[in-house]
Specification:
Elements (H helix, E strand, L loop, with lengths): L2 H9 L7 E10 L11 E2 L1 E14 L4 E6 L4 E6 L12 H13 L7 E7 L9 H16 L6 H15 L7 H8 L4 E6 L5 E5 L5 E7 L9 H18 L13 H7 L3 H25 L3 H18 L5 H8 L7 E7 L6 E7 L3 H16 L4 E4 L7 E2 L2
Parallel strand pairs: 4-6
Antiparallel strand pairs: 1-3, 1-13, 2-7, 3-6, 4-5, 7-8, 9-11, 9-12, 10-11
Helix pairs in contact: 2-3, 2-4, 3-4, 3-5, 4-5, 6-8, 8-9
Length: 382
């Protein structure tokens, strides 16, 4: 949506002159389900945005219009309570409530928003909304929060108001992204190491299965609980281990982890190792090595961590052995969403043809394909 159209949508609902903000979705090149284990990930911000026009009003109300859904939220500043957990309203209520908890003197807010970040595709559509509104309020209230503090506000909004116990990767990518770059992110120390993405004649392609996951459902939180349980058992013998980021394969053997706890712990250790190796591949422009790590990541996510689905596996299986593809993996929380494919740029059309018809025949639906640019993070624009 153009800036002019966004402002007109605001003017159709509210008075006043708004300020406009945008916050990107994100990809994650490699490293999934490592973020809430204080591990390593490799995200980047992409040119799909949540966009907002925001102004103060003369009331004690928060008023937010969803342009895409044609819905309106209106709530008193003294009644900022979570709605049903799948509601988009929670992100606005939650962010504003947390600003109030941090001592900011709240004022009435009018806002309209739109987003072209695909929902449920693993591209962090919810984080884009929470980060955009957090950034907007920080500027408008002149609150002075750092970007790291805004990450925490957006993350706490997910935890407390949407009941999604996410890590901090999505919010960090949305707020800190840099044009043309991915970054290795240490989810514990928050250290970010940026790398230019030099893909030569290759590109990254997203294939959206259109299977819509809901991270608030039990499966995601069960994986997190399994990891936390594994850490507690490891700590009985290795008290220095604070999270699975600190664990080693020999520790798993040493404490006799078994069943789901063992498999989850093994995957997280291996996925962290893959992120570190991927950083070396980027430094050496080794796309073949990077692609192999992507395939290995998918295998672990599908067979060990069990967060893939038939649609994702169907697509990945058809990337093996193709001369114009270096690697591919599912991306995001899982249970649907996107695959990310490292593919020769001039072969994208051929790959689409290879996938579309058999996918439609197998699942009675059509995947969607996205090409994208890597962009800067959340910002005000005019």
């Amino acid at each position: 949506m153009s800036l002019n159209t966004l402002k007109k949508e605001f003017e159709a609902r509210f008075s006043g002159v708004p300020r406009c903000f945008k916050s990107p979705g994100r990809i994650n090149l490699i490293g999934d389900h490592t973020d809430y284990n204080n591990g390593f990930v490799m995200p980047a911000a992409i040119d799909r945005y949540a966009r907002m026009a925001v102004s103060f009003n003369e009331t004690e109300n928060l008023n937010v219009g969803s342009i895409d859904l044609g819905e309106m939220l209106s709530t008193d500043l003294n009644q900022l309570e979570a709605k049903g957990r799948s509601s988009w309203e929670n992100f606005f209520i939650g962010v504003l409530a947390i600003f109030g908890e941090k001592g900011i003197q709240l004022k009435g807010i009018d806002c309209v928003f739109t987003s072209d970040v695909p929902v449920g595709a693993g591209l962090s559509s919810s984080a884009a909304i929470a980060c955009c509104f957090s950034f907007a309020l920080n500027e408008m209230f002149e609150a002075g929060f750092t970007k790291n503090e805004l990450v925490e506000i957006a993350q706490q909004t997910e935890h407390r108001f949407a009941q999604v116990m996410c890590g901090n990767m999505d919010q960090t990518a949305s707020l800190f992204g840099k044009e043309g770059q991915v970054f290795k992110f240490d989810c514990r120390s928050r250290e970010k190491t940026f790398h230019s993405l030099n893909l030569k004649d290759f590109t990254l392609l997203l294939v959206d299965t259109k299977v819509k996951h809901a991270l608030a459902e039990t499966a995601y939180n069960q994986r997190r609980e399994a990891c936390e349980s594994a850490v507690k058992l490891i700590q009985n013998r290795y008290p220095e281990v604070e999270s699975l980021r600190d664990a080693k394969h020999e520790m798993i053997q040493g404490v006799g982890l078994s069943g789901k706890l063992k498999v989850c712990a093994e995957f997280v250790i291996e996925e962290n190792e893959r992120v570190n190796l991927a950083e070396v591949c980027l430094d050496q422009n080794d796309l073949t090595g990077l692609g192999k790590l992507m395939w290995a990541s998918h295998k672990g996510l599908s067979e060990k961590y069990e967060v893939s689905c038939p649609e994702l596996d169907f697509i990945i299986e058809r990337t093996y052995g193709l001369p114009y593809i270096k690697g591919a993996r599912m991306m995001g929380g899982g249970f649907g969403g996107c695959c990310i494919v490292l593919i020769q740029a001039n072969a994208v059309k051929d790959f689409k043809k290879l996938i579309e018809a058999p996918f439609s025949k197998e699942f009675n639906s059509s995947p969607e394909f996205y090409q994208f640019e890597l962009v800067d993070g959340t910002e005000e624009y005019d």
